[in-house]
């Protein structure tokens, strides 16, 4: 099953399970989703539950938060997370803070989901990683799946969670195929990292699109006698730092791969946490492999240079291994 | 049903021609209400409306005093002068209806049913506050009376209120939502995005613009190209009315019409209530952008004074009744201060409580 269909299945199952869940966003209903993640849901659940919006991101994001205040469980799709920038006031100032500011009276069970990260040749405004923005704020949970099975299990957990969840899918990964449990009770808890590959010589922490990239790098490094452990936090906030630190204490070396810009990124945070919690175990400084510190260019060759690839991760692991 | 009558429009245009124009001569505005048998409300209701307005006025005066004494911190935006808008509108809804508003919300919170004790304790940053001391003046909440905040970003509550109304329709209840905001919020995208969705999806939301003619220190004519706020509903084919926000009964009646439309037809309404804020934008505002004379001119049409005159002229209340109300309100306000003083500070564990409903 593709990641697209796994997400679709999670949405369908949760819409069927709980009548307070509804799905709202641009082109989610009649058009069947800009990326077809919501295909068939209008037909299955009708226009009350699956709602096309005008192009009005601040408006429908805020509407979702208000609906959550009054007891519903909205799923708000951003056609891409690039457009969520228009809605940040409602996500940050309302969704993230209402429970706290109201002294615990108003929980906000809402999921903001859609594709994020790099896309294919769409230049700077449609191709960027925004997870570090949202992960900055207490009150939000941030989730980024890297496999179809994780996508299904994590999205179901996100919808059932009583807090606002930012659920960032990767546009380039919608067509990725893998086995997905069809069991309706299959869920993956939020806040739990997954060891995607066991290894002994170096730890690679990667999320979203960087997970398959890191796994390919690990395969290449294996041929050269370097055994890599690949850890996918899956949930960025709250971060399962324990699993990462445990791995680093075993391998004594850490590389963090991410699509985002390096400055104040999630990778910077993970690096700081490793330094604080496993400094004495490190045999080399933590190395980050990040997207280029430039707006995303259009030209294919430049775009390739801006996104971390297998070779960069291989080189980084060799660097921390002094090989 | 859409839009206002010609007479109301004339009134709106006259009023919006200059910030210093007083809406109507004092006697003219209250003329209809002073004719006997035209109030059309029971005595109990009228007295309760008056009591609430006086309570809010005295409560806010006490807030100013407590702020000056350093008992209240942060921003403190007072409602003095605007009482008729909140009290009149909220008197037209049920307890299970919803209210969302901006940061100038002490008055509306009290009118919706949060006790003055819980509001004052919140302003004092105490555990007994309606938001357990974590929201302060700008973020009052009480789920049990349908008061959903207290929002600090100009216009931020407008999409939220639209969503609350969406939920009522989705849940097939007949609840309605009142959404208050100042006229400065009308220039935000959130206002326009919300009104578009509310009319498109026929949501039972009543948008009440409290046009006090200043967004902080910037007057209406320096900030708004079309100063007739009610007229903006045309862009969304939404029903609207211009209301004299200094006349509490007109405010109540206009809201009743909007509530009927929301409850029975699930349709939104935009009300523009023309009012005036006597105090600064916040307690730290010296008010250099307007003259003392301008404020005094508006105070001639003080909403409480106008209402008392109406009630007396109609034989609804006597001077003794008024004295009793004042005495009771004085005690209520003093009690709220005692409650706030005696309420403990939030426990230090509150710092990290309620960040997540499901902590992981």
What can you see in these coordinates?
The complex is a heterodimer of chains A (323) and B (360). Chain A contains twelve helices and twelve strands. Chain A has a seven-stranded mixed beta sheet, with helices on both faces. In chain A, strands 7-9-8-11-12 form a five-stranded mixed beta sheet, with helices on both faces. Chain A has 323 residues and is of the alpha/beta class. Chain A has helices at residues 3-17, 41-45, 57-69, 88-95, 98-101, 131-135, 148-160, 210-223, 241-251, 266-278, 300-306, 310-320, and strands at residues 21-25, 50-52, 73-77, 111-116, 141-143, 165-170, 194-197, 202-206, 228-232, 235-237, 254-257, 287-289. In chain A, strand 8 (202-206), helix 8 (210-223) and strand 9 (228-232) form a beta-alpha-beta unit. Chain A is globular. In chain A, 58% of the residues are buried. Chain A has two domains: 3-173, 3-Layer(aba) Sandwich (Rossmann fold); 194-320, Rossmann fold (3-Layer(aba) Sandwich), CATH 3.40.50. Chain B starts with 5 loop residues before the first helix and ends in an 18-residue tail after the last helix. In chain B, strand 3, helix 9 (189-200) and strand 4 form a beta-alpha-beta unit. Chain B contains 14 helices and eight strands. In chain B, the strands form two sheets. In chain B, strands 2-1-3-4-8-7 form a six-stranded parallel beta sheet, with helices on both faces. Chain B has a two-stranded antiparallel ribbon with strand order 5-6. Residues 1-37 of chain B have low confidence and may be disordered. Chain B is globular and about 50 Å long. Chain B has a single domain (41-343), classed as 3-Layer(aba) Sandwich (Rossmann fold). In chain B, 44% of the residues lie in helices and 10% in strands. By secondary structure, chain B is an alpha/beta fold. In chain B, helix 4 crosses helix 14 and helix 5 (83-90) packs parallel to helix 11 (248-265). The chains are: A alpha/beta (323), B alpha/beta (360).
């Amino acid at each position: 099953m593709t990641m697209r269909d796994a997400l679709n299945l999670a949405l369908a199952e949760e819409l069927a399970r709980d009548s307070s869940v509804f799905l709202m966003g641009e082109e989610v209903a009649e058009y069947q989703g800009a990326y077809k993640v919501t295909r068939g849901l209008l037909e299955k659940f009708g226009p009350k539950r699956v709602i096309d919006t005008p192009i009005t991101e601040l408006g429908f994001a805020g509407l979702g938060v208000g609906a959550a205040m009054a007891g519903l469980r909205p799923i708000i799709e951003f056609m891409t997370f690039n457009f969520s920038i228009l809605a940040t006031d409602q996500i940050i100032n309302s969704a993230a803070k209402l429970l706290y500011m109201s002294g615990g009276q108003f929980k906000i069970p809402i999921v903001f989901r859609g594709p994020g990260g790099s896309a294919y040749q769409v230049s700077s405004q449609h191709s960027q990683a925004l997870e570090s923005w949202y992960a900055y704020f207490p009150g939000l949970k941030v989730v980024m799946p890297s496999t179809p099975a994780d996508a299904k299990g994590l999205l179901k957990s996100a919808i059932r969670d009583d807090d606002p969840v930012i659920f960032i899918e990767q546009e380039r990964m919608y067509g990725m195929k893998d086995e997905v449990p069809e069991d309706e009770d299959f869920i993956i808890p939020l806040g739990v990292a997954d060891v995607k590959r066991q290894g002994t010589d170096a730890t690679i922490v990667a999320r979203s699109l960087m997970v398959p990239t890191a796994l390919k790098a690990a395969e290449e490094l294996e041929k050269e006698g370097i055994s890599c452990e690949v850890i996918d936090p899956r949930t960025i906030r709250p971060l399962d730092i324990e699993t990462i630190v445990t791995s680093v204490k075993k391998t004594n070396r850490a590389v963090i791969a991410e699509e985002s810009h390096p400055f104040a990124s999630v990778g910077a945070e993970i690096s700081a946490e490793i330094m604080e919690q496993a400094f004495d175990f490190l045999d080399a400084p933590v190395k980050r492999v990040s997207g280029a510190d430039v707006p995303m260019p259009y030209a294919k060759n430049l775009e390739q240079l801006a996104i971390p690839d297998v070779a960069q991760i291989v080189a980084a692991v060799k660097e921390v291994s002094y090989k | 049903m859409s839009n206002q009558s010609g007479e109301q429009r004339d009134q709106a245009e006259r009023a919006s021609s200059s910030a210093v124009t007083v809406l109507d001569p004092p006697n003219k505005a209250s003329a209809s209400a002073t004719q006997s048998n035209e109030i059309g409300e029971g005595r109990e209701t009228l007295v309760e409306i008056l009591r609430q307005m006086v309570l809010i006025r005295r409560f806010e005066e006490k807030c100013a005093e407590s702020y000056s004494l350093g008992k209240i911190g942060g921003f403190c935006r007072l409602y003095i002068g605007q009482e008729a808008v909140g009290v009149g509108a909220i008197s037209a809804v049920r307890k299970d209806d919803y209210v969302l508003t901006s940061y100038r919300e002490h008055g509306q919170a009290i009118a919706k049913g949060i006790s003055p004790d819980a509001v004052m304790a919140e302003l004092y940053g105490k555990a007994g506050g309606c938001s357990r001391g974590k929201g302060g003046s700008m973020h009052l909440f009480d789920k049990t009376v349908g008061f959903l905040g207290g929002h600090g970003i100009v216009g931020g509550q407008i999409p939220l209120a639209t969503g609350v109304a969406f939920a009522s329709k989705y849940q097939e209840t007949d609840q309605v939502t009142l959404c208050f905001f100042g006229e400065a919020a009308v220039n935000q995208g959130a206002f326009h995005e919300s009104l578009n969705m509310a009319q498109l999806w026929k949501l039972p939301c009543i948008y009440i613009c409290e046009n006090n003619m200043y967004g902080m220190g910037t007057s209406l004519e320096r900030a708004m190209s079309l100063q007739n706020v009610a007229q903006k509903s045309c862009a969304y084919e939404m029903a609207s009315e211009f209301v004299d926000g200094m006349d509490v009964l007109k405010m109540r009646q206009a809201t009743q019409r909007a509530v009927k439309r929301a409850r029975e037809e699930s349709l939104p309404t935009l009300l523009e209530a023309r009012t005036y804020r006597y105090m600064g934008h916040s307690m730290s505002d010296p008010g250099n952008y307007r003259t003392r004379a301008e404020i005094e001119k508006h105070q001639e049409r003080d909403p409480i004074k106008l209402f008392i005159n109406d009630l007396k002229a109609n034989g609804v209340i006597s001077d003794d009744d008024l004295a009793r109300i004042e005495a009771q309100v004085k005690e209520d306000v003093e009690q709220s201060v005692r409650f706030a003083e005696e309420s403990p500070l939030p426990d230090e564990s509150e710092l990290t409580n309620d960040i997540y409903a499901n902590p992981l």
